[in-house]
Design a protein that fits this description.
The chain is mainly β and 266 residues long. Helices cover 13% and strands 44% of the residues. The protein has five helices and 18 strands. It has helices at 2-5, 13-20, 125-129, 141-144, 148-160, and strands spanning 26-32, 36-41, 45-48, 52-58, 67-73, 76-82, 86-93, 105-109, 112-118, 168-175, 180-185, 191-194, 198-204, 213-218, 221-228, 231-238, 251-255, 258-264. Strands 5-6-7-1-2-11-10-16-15-14 form a ten-stranded antiparallel sheet, with helices on one face. A four-stranded antiparallel sheet has the order 3-4-9-8, with no helix packed on it. Strand 12 and strand 13 (198-204) form a beta hairpin. The longest helix has 13 residues, at 148-160.
Length: 266
């Protein structure tokens, strides 16, 4: 269902080129079965060797080498890795010692996918003079567009659309000084149980306390938002007919890292 969100930009090399413009040293985007999108910045492990800089990440587990596309634009290197289970998009700033006349090397072993960018003994004059920022620069779109008022409202409109089967979503972001991690799920990873008394929505929110979490309605969607230092969590669930949809009727509780919101029947 995430293809519904990025309908104007397909999930391919063009998509990751747009993300690289934000000044991120490296990033990895993973779309699993069109249901889960993860973003890691920086997202690639870089190892310098005599033959070049190896860029690697934990990839697919099957043994056959999946389809690969690579590209260069400006000071950035991009790749797209497509498997039956997932699509991986990566970007990184080109090393100063990159050798444009060398050949790329690819290795795929034990679930680790690696690409070697050839290097030379002296830095490339053009790259050395470019003064490339190789550190995580804020803000990025994944810092700015996150909250009940923006991302939550947009996803509420998505799950309310008649053409979208998913009627729930979850989104989680962890932002530290060194990295940004984002994970979004359509449908969400919540559990909803209907009883004779009402409906109970359970969400795993490890590390959050009850006072960190707010719950309320946007139209017919129950929105749960948790905030604490460096972490932000949003979930939305379309509530079936026959249950109260007033904010003051929501019973809230937290048990062992699981937040529960209970709504009585009408």
């Amino acid at each position: 269902m995430f293809s519904f969100l990025i309908i104007s930009v397909t999930f391919d090399l063009q998509f990751v080129r747009v993300q690289a413009e934000t000044g991120v040293p490296s990033a990895l985007f993973t779309l699993v079965k069109d249901e889960q999108l993860t973003v890691q910045m920086p997202g690639l492990t870089q190892t310098e060797t005599e033959e070049g800089v190896w860029v690697s990440f934990d990839g697919p587990t099957h043994r056959q080498l999946p389809g690969l596309k690579v590209g260069f634009e400006g000071f950035n290197f991009f790749f797209q890795l497509h498997t039956p289970e997932a699509t991986y998009l990566g970007s990184m700033k080109v090393p100063e010692y990159y050798n444009p006349c060398g050949n790329l090397k690819v290795n795929f072993e034990d679930g680790i996918f690696s690409i070697c960018l050839p290097t030379q003994k002296t830095p490339d004059r053009f790259l050395a003079q470019a003064n490339i920022n190789r550190h995580l620069t804020r803000p990025t779109p994944y810092c700015e567009m996150f909250g009940r008022s923006d991302l939550g409202r947009m996803l509420c409109e998505v799950i309310a659309h008649p053409g979208v089967k998913s009627k729930s979503f979850t989104a989680y972001k962890k932002d530290t000084d060194e990295s940004i991690y984002f994970r979004g799920n359509l449908p969400g990873v919540e559990k909803m149980v209907v009883t004779r008394e009402g409906v109970c929505v359970s969400l795993r929110m490890p590390g959050f306390e009850l006072e960190d979490v707010e719950a309320g309605f946007e139209s017919d969607t129950l929105i749960v938002e948790g905030k604490r230092e460096g972490e932000h969590y949003i979930a939305g669930v379309r509530v079936p007919e026959g249950f109260r949809r007033e904010n003051d009727m929501i019973k809230r509780e937290m048990q062992n890292g699981v937040f529960k919101a209970t709504l009585p029947r009408v």
